[in-house]
Amino acid sequence: MDDLKAKYLEQIAGAADEAALEAIRVAAVGKKGEVSLQMRQLGKMTPEERQVAGPALNALKDEINAALTAKKAGLADAALDERLKAEWLDVTLPVRAGRQGTIHPVSQVTEEVTAIFAEMGFSVAQGPRIDTDWYNFDALNIPSHHPARAEMDTFYMHRDAGDNRPPHVLRTHTSPVQIRSMEAMGAPLRIICPGGVYRADYDQTHTPMFHQVEGLAVDRDISMANLKWVLEEFFAAYFEVEGVKTRFRASHFPFTEPSAEVDIQCTWVDGQLKVGEGDGWMEVLGSGMVHPKVLAAGGIDPDEWQGFAFGMGIDRIAMLKYGIPDLRAFFESDLRWLRHYGFSALDVPTLRGGLSR
To answer: In the predicted model, what is the mean pLDDT of the chain?
Structure first.
């Protein structure tokens, strides 16, 4: 053992690089190394011989491994020293032009919308993007035969044969967050629910993943008049135009009754949208009074409470405000596009300081 110790410690000390060091390790303590072969002989020894040879062999193996580790660290330090000698930087050279990242329009508009509704007393609520079909459909009074529940429109999660758990979907709207918020907080309630949603659609104005913000207010004496005031105040603040006129058109949504689609007054001048003037109208969102069945699904008594809800596409209102022609560009990760339409990281939207650049 003394001969083995002297032999390998001398070889380790003289190793010139990590490859040579690895070869020494294999020869000494590898599976077929000399020390390993010696340890296999322990089984053939008498108990008395084993009692002496075992601890000695273990001590030899530990000493060789420690020497290998120390030498490897020494070689790494030496390599780093050589690299530092070869690499240098002239600190007198001029610095590179400053580069600053930009905030995506979706993130910016989400912050703008949040700032506006926060001034009106709405808090932000969030929920899972993968949810059960009960939260996404049933609790919102959407019947089983509704077209939105078809696989051509909704992304369903895979289920193995015999799996009896409730079906899960990529949420098609942020309305499930409303149900979860009613369950958790009860009434009265005033929230907005921004976030990503998913539908099987793709063209210039539709993508499989996009962003929505939905609002919900529940109290004892809420009416459509409150809904109209909230939306008109929002449009005026968001588009930074006083007195934006709105037009409510009767519609049908399973989760609201009565329901209305909302248009805003606008005109097109040289291909540019101008909100709050002209004799044109543009649809921007859906809204209505919360259906009693939806309140009940959220654990709120519809005989004592009532509320309004609305929902709009964040990507869509970003396109309208900032003149972005194609929704698909939002998700193509083109840095040139982001530099053109992006926002400064320091441009934090507030109603007092200004929402946008």
So the answer is: 87
